[in-house]
Amino acid sequence: MSEVKLFVQNSRAIYDSLMRFQDAKINLSLKNNQISNYQTQVTGCQIQNSKLRSDANDMAVRLFDANEANQILHRRFRRADIERWAWRIGAAAILYLKFK
Fold first, then answer.
1. Over the stretch 24-56, which tens digit does the pLDDT of each residue have?
2. In 31-67, which positions are buried (b, 16+ CB within 10 angstroms) versus exposed (e)?
3. In CA terms, which of 1, 22, 29, 72 is 20 to 30 Å from 38?
């Protein structure tokens, strides 16, 4: 009979322990769900990061190509400008010699 009496005396503490255990199980389940959600977010961020890095590399290549094309055009325009000045100077020299 003493075991039953002891059980009844400790029933409140046992009940509190069981309730805390239930709360801990619920909290653990919620935390596991949060971890799962965070892992999904991390995976999404990693995918986005790799896409952004790829885009940055593509943009760097396009920028390099654009700079190369710009340098080629600049050289062509510079050559044409020099040629125009040479024709002007040549024409001026011919006119000067002709009317001298």
1. 999 999 999 999 999 999 999 999 999 999 999
2. eeeeeeeeeeeeeeeeeeeeeeeeeeeeeeeeeeeee
3. 22
Amino acid identity of 75? R
Model pLDDT, residue 91? 95
DSSP structure string for 25-86: HHHHHHHHHHHHHHHHHHHHHHHHHHHHHHHHHHHHHHHHHHHHHHHHHHHHHHHHHHHHHH
State residue 10 phi and psi, 5-degree precision: -95, 5
Half-sphere exposure of 89 (CA within 13 A, CB side): 6
Closest CA to 79 of 91, 67, 87, 90: 87
Q: Is pTM beyond 0.85 here?
A: no
Count CA atoms closer than 13 A to 53's CA, side-chain side: 6
